[in-house]
Design brief:
The chain is an alpha+beta fold. It has 1 helix and 4 strands; from the N terminus they run ββββα. The chain has one helix at about 45-65, and strands spanning about 5-10, 20-25, 25-30, 40-45. A hairpin with a 7-residue loop joins strand 3 (about 25-30) and strand 4.
């Protein structure tokens, strides 16, 4: 059995108001850092890559980067 290692963005600092991710062999897992025992999303690697590309695009248009 594989141990799941959750991590959050270094941009979050000490805040618990964020999401955490973990990688598994075929999926990316996402959960709310305030509710570690609560529900989680399991995304395919392709869906995660698409999400990151979209977030990057929106961030650049929103913040002018």
């Amino acid at each position: 059995m594989q141990t799941i290692r959750w991590q959050k963005s270094t941009y979050s600092g000490d805040s618990s108001n964020c999401v955490e991710i973990a990688t598994a062999p075929t999926t990316i897992l996402i959960r709310d850092s305030k509710d570690a025992a609560g529900p989680r999303l399991d995304l395919s690697r392709a869906a995660w890559t698409t999400f990151l590309a979209y977030a990057d695009k929106i961030g650049k248009s929103e913040f002018g980067a």
